[in-house]
Amino acid sequence: MLNSLAYEFADASLRLVRAGGRFIEMGKTDIRDAAEHPRLRYRAFDLKQAGPERTGELLDILLTAFAAGTLRPLPYTAVDLRRARDAFRQLSQARHIGKIVLTVPRPVEESGTALVTGARGTLGGIVARHLVTGWGVRRLLLLSREPADRLAKELTALGAEATVVACDVADREAVAAALAQIPTAHPLRIVVHTAGVLDDGLVTELTADRLDRVLRPKVDGARHLHDLTRDADLSAFVLFSSAAGVLGGPGQADYGAANTYLDALAGHRRTLACRPCRWPGACGSRPAR
Ligand SMILES: NC(=O)c1ccc[n+]([C@@H]2O[C@H](COP(=O)([O-])OP(=O)(O)OC[C@H]3O[C@@H](n4cnc5c(N)ncnc54)[C@H](OP(=O)(O)O)[C@@H]3O)[C@@H](O)[C@H]2O)c1
After folding, report:
1. Quick check: is 181 in a domain?
2. In this structure, is residue 125 part of a structural domain?
3. Could you count the other beta carbons within 10 Å of the beta carbon of residue 240?
């Protein structure tokens, strides 16, 4: 019995052990006198007792066992440091499984690549310039249906390196191919999705084609970017939604729906707490896709 419970729960744990069994107490709150439990082998331990050298040896044994797949790491939930309050609340209510790990947001790295969709558009251009002048980003991948050559030239003049790709963001294969162009030396660190199309109309006037026109770049594009980058260690994944999704705009039924999807996707992505662990496939806590 490996125990960390206390008081009547520790009593219950003790009762569970058969005569001659071992009871290992890892808790600190309720350490018992081994002499009072002659029926079993009672031992409380403190990790520090082993000393740094032996602890190192033990960690080596564990790492070898993890690498060989003999042991699987405990499931964990990684929570952004800025949500530490929620994490501690969950911990205090014992609503978690495994460990809760606080992660520090990755700062924007100059060596990383920023992907901007809708780069020929108004906001795509503004964001790209801001990434370079305000955030020091030096490598950008600009996606739009027609190549964003003019913006690329501007960014080059500002000291950045911009790669231009003509790509329909609603086409998953095309987005995957564009992402595959990012050199490993400058991994993807920022995604900004501004691509969008308007085709305003009241619900009664909408046709499948009109809905499709609006939903494809915004919704399908966002979904592909999300799917294809969810295991990337990003500093930022930014979706350009609109208040139209919350407030509603006359004649913007399709656009409203598209933006509400983006809001929901952003919330969903935030709740996907698990980051890829160092043992791909071994971590029990990866949420279903
Ligand atoms: N401007 C605003 O005041 C405002 C307010 C709220 C929300 N927003 C949102 O912010 C985003 C950007 O707005 P904006 O004013 O900059 O729009 P914009 O000037 O019309 O630019 C949108 C860009 O999206 C690109 N695009 C459309 N479909 C695409 C596709 N399938 N694949 C790749 N690119 C595609 C277009 O590229 P091409 O040039 O190649 O066709 C266009 O350059 C939109 O999502 C919009 O809903 C804007």
Report:
1. yes
2. yes
3. 19
Is the backbone of residue 51 left (phi > 0), alpha (psi -120 to 50) or beta?
left
Note the pLDDT of residue 39. Answer: 96
- DSSP SS3 for 66: helix
Task: Report if residue 142 sits inside a domain.
Answer: yes
Would you give the distance in Å from CA 39 to the centre of its chain?
49
The Cα 63–Cα 222 span in angstroms is 38
Distance 184 CA to ligand 1 centre (A): 29
Q: What is the pLDDT of residue 159?
A: 96
CATH number of 176's domain: 3.40.50.720
Ligand 1: residues whose CB is within 6 Å?
117-118, 120-124, 143-146, 168-170, 194-197, 216-218, 240, 242
Q: Which domain holds residue 119?
A: 113-268
Q: What is the pLDDT of residues 56-83, one digit of tens each?
A: 999 999 999 999 999 998 888 888 888 8
**Atom nearest to 255 CA in ligand 1:** 47
Q: How confident is the model at residue 283 (pLDDT cuts 50, 70, 90)?
A: very low
Report how far residue 176's alpha carbon sits from residue 223's, in angstroms, rounded to the nearest whole number: 12
Name the domain count of the chain. Answer: 1
Nearest-10 Cα torsion for 141, 146, 150, 151 = -30
pLDDT digits (tens, 9 = 90+) for 89-119: 989 998 888 888 898 877 888 889 999 999 9
Residues 228/219, Cβ–Cβ less than 8 Å: no
